[in-house]
Amino acid sequence: MRAWTVRTPGRLEAAELPVPHPAEDELLVQVRACGVCRTDLHVRDGDLPPHRSPVVPGHEVVGEVVAAGPRAQGHPVGSRVGVPWLRHTCGHCRFCRHGRENLCPHSRYTGWDADGGYAEYTTVPAAYAYSLPGGYSDAELAPLLCAGIIGFRALRRAELPPGGRLGIYGFGGSAHLTAQVAMAEGATVHVLTRSAEARRLALELGAASAAGAQDTPPEPLDAAILFAPVGDLVPTALAALDAGGTLSVAGIHLSPIPALDYERHLFHERTLRSVTSNTREDGRTFLASAQAHSVRTTVTPYPFAEADRALEDLAADRVNGAAVLLM
Questions:
Q1: Superkingdom of this entry's organism (predicted)?
Q2: CA dihedral 324, 193, 50, 256 (to 10 degrees)
Q3: What is 2-132+297-326's CATH superfamily?
């Protein structure tokens, strides 16, 4: 099968690989579309330490089940499924036992610990695959499977009060989905991002304002989410919070955070919180919410053969919405 691999940091290489064989509890999925996530950039560039080399990136996979191991249940051959970032948790540690499997120390991830969706076929443990909502194309579904899910968890971690004022820093694949959920739930959303095209998209989707990443929003924020992997924006976002506000940092990787001034950035019970992966329940809840609120995915499609260009465009902020590889 055709595939793209990361063997050395900084390079995505085309390859011919054997079609994988599903384990007893796994599905073999023929890939139809795969979202291009900023985490894929971190895997390619070595920002995340290699867990497998070479590895096929990609963890926003939409495809068709074409075979299954004897213990794989819930997704019959011929069904459309989603293959997400979270691939395995132990089920026995204190985090798994208390509904916090995203913190499982034995967790494994698609496109990092195991080959992902930058290929014509991939595998997924059946218990970690998602049934997908109707009314979306393959390309429209792909960004929901990581960008949407992790954005949803970041929104919940931000503890936005009902009808509150939310600031969103960075406005790519994840942010444009999260903003729609927040607005559907009654929030006022202010977007702060360096991309003029992203600011236009934010206003089209209903944001109350859109300005530069270092600008001050037009009103104090009850909560904020940092999607851009830029540590320099942490003090900026904290300073924009009202008393009692929370900043949620959504990325798996962040450049260094400058020194914080206690009085300006943290006093008055402002809170800084990280976001680590997601639970399967996060995914199921978000996919149901996306369908209920008719969340619109803005997609920039790329042929599978141009995966390297898609990653370069993402790195240079040339992607409007979410980039998706199409088979």
A1: Bacteria
A2: 180
A3: Medium-chain alcohol dehydrogenases, catalytic domain (3.90.180.10)
